[in-house]
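Box 3.1. Reading complex inputs
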Amino acid sequence: MPTVQFTDNIQRHVPCPPTQVQGTTVREVLDAVFADNPRARGYVLDEQGALRKHMAIFLDGRMILDRTSLSDAVQPDAKVYVMQALSGG
Amino acid sequence: MSNRILAATRKGLFSIERGKSRWTVKKVHFLGDNATMVLPDPRDGSVYVALGHGHFGVKLHRLRAGARKWDEIATPALPARPEGTPPRMDPMGRPIPDTVQLVWALEAADPARPGTLWCGTIPGGLFRSEDAGASWELNRGLWDHPKRLEWVGGGADYPGIHSVCVDPRDARRVAVGVSTGGVWLTTDGGISWTISSHGLRADYMPPEQANDPYFQDVHRLVQSPGQPAEWWIQHHNGVFRSTNDAALWEELQIPPSSFGFAVVAHPRDSGTAWFVPGMSDQRRVPVDGRVVVTRTRDGGRSFEVLTKGLPQRQAYDITYRHGLDIDASGDRLAFGTTTGSLWVTEDQGDSWKAVSEHLPPIYCVRFVEGG
């Protein structure tokens, strides 16, 4: 099962422990996480279901391409990191 | 007489209390977080705060009277665009986002019904809650008004609702101020809305459009609580007053400058209001480096420039639209600034004392009544 891990910075607002869930796309994986942790959804996704502008998701070491539909394919042994997007400064 | 002030700042919500002789910071909530708006609700003693997390979006929290722990409540959400429809464009050809960018106004909706709330947002949404923020409903009457799509961003990229005035005579009469998009009025609780900006003037538009009521950049709109037919606006390029329920606005020239963001009206005395002027829209600093508050007691026929206790050289504090408040007694006022200064008066502005000059940038200052 894919492993999902969240940035430390989100933990102050809503606890998001590392977890393993079923899913073949980023959307399915996140839906599975948020089914058990519904308050976390709004911290990662906006009200239209897209990844928030200043958030980033890394899938096996690369940033996902589809930030709107979250359709990037997830392998069974994938590592998914939900991080903050840093823009320098 | 209020003895407590809440200040929403770039780095948290500050609670400031009056001791025997002076005001001091007693507590900081959400330290480090961007608190954009606060509402101490006099109906049930709750406090609502809006946070704008750069990464994690806009959030709302509520502290019930007597509680020690904040509860996260629902955040207003814009409706999904029907699949396949392109995004709506603003008049500058930019897509209007389908997500709430900022909570810019929070007000008690009905004095007789605790838990009813109005919330104004960027981009241009007005929301209503009947259950103390457990859920929100977008006001479709205003959102679906065809003229809403002509609103444009002022200082922000997208337009927003920053002022919500609930008429003390009838809670179904509500006016909102839009930057930019004028004043909008409903008399039926939000089912239908009409523009109410006639007489406002926009120097930043071509001469043919300067008086168009839809193009007016209202910085702050307030209704005089004790004289509800009297209204005040601090506008992008001037100060305006209406004495006929916002039907027609009359321009006033105030010293030392008519530019600014904030205005408050006395809770009872007709014709009495306060402003915190800046130099101009091009130079958003105090005139000559002197922080002043301007007061009128005669409906704008004359003004006093109040300076006692305020820095009069090399000061660059600017007060945003929600940064000035007056308590229910009408004697105490407080204002906070972008450079983290907070001043209080207990004599209607005749003299001021600094609570702090080292707070984070202050967005909103509000007295807590009964607390």
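In summary: Helices of chain A lie at 26-36, 38-44.
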